[in-house]
Amino acid sequence: MSENEEIQKRLDAIMNDPSYRVAYLDEDYIRREELRPLRLELELLKPEMLMEEAGIESTVVVFGGTQVAPADHAKERLDKAEAAAKDNPDDESVQRELFLAKRVMAKSRYYEECREFSRIVTEYNHTQKNDGEFIVKTGGGPGIMEAGNRGAFDAGGKSMALNITLPFEQTPNSYVTPGLCFQFNYFAIRKMHFLLRAKALVCFPGGFGTLDELFTSLTLKQTGRMQDIPIILYSKEYWNNIIDFQFLADEGVIQDSHLALFQYAETPEETWQIIKDFHGVK
């Protein structure tokens, strides 16, 4: 090997070593455990800066389950389950799927009602000629989240989404406004962004994720650590079946006054009226 070749080999080794990468372009470096505070800060700042640039002043946050399907999808699942159950009447797993498919079908109305709610809110924004207030914001996934973004899309308006990286594939629904869909790695920062500009929280039926978001919000409102906004539970029957709030008060683990931290609503129109009354808008 010639002297020039040896020099070039040494230079290649130096320049190809990770230590030579510019720090902010070095993904392996940025992902080091010691730099978690930096990642948290960046994850907080990026959506904040872009929302400010987009003129987003306030939002209506929509929570709800990923498994709440539109009627046509729910019907397709039910048809398949009924056919399988007919062919396998003694198979417990098949019968269980039929039971679940019926429940999903029964809850499909929430998809349509959430979609209608979002459409109503977005059309109100059009009448006010204000595209920065009461912007619908969801988690960006399927189910109720898709319905929320879809309703705004139906009305020709914009909506936002805060997506989250998960161990399994997670992509945003196609109804989110481009430029207003943000991806998060940290649930905590995502929750902060749900609440920072919120003028209302509407919780449609959902599972663990929806419960987590609901109780985080209730706790912050209970302790005075967030702005005073309406927290609306959509479908009293559903929520009373999974959470006995009155029992908590009767046990003395929450105060009776804490039962007023949230309200129930049964229709898209009633939900929007609660929000309008709270903020004194017409």
Beta-strand proportion? 5-15%
Instruction: Extract low-pLDDT stretches.
Output: none
Indicate the mean pLDDT.
95
Query: What is CATH's topology name of the domain at 57-70 and 108-279?
Result: Rossmann fold
Main beta sheet strand tally, sense and closure: 7 strands, parallel
Order of helices and strands: HHHEHHEHEEHEHEHHEH
CATH top level of the domain at 57-70 and 108-279? Alpha Beta
Short structural description:
The chain is of the alpha/beta class and 282 residues long. It is built from 11 helices and 7 strands. 54% of the residues lie in helices and 11% in strands.
How would you explain this protein's 3D organization?
With 282 residues, the protein is α/β, with parallel strands linked by helices. The chain has a domain at 57-70 and 108-279: Rossmann fold, CATH 3.40.50. The protein contains 11 helices and 7 strands. It has helices at 3-16, 27-30, 36-53, 71-87, 92-128, 144-154, 187-196, 208-222, 236-242, 245-250, 268-279, and strands at residues 59-63, 135-138, 160-164, 181-184, 198-203, 231-234, 263-265. It has a 7-stranded parallel β-sheet, with helices on both faces. Helix 6 (144-154) links the parallel strand 2 (135-138) and strand 3 (160-164). Helix 4 (71-87) packs antiparallel against helix 5. The longest helix has 37 residues, at 92-128. It starts with a helix and ends with a helix. The relative contact order is 0.12. The model has no long low-confidence stretch (mean pLDDT 95).
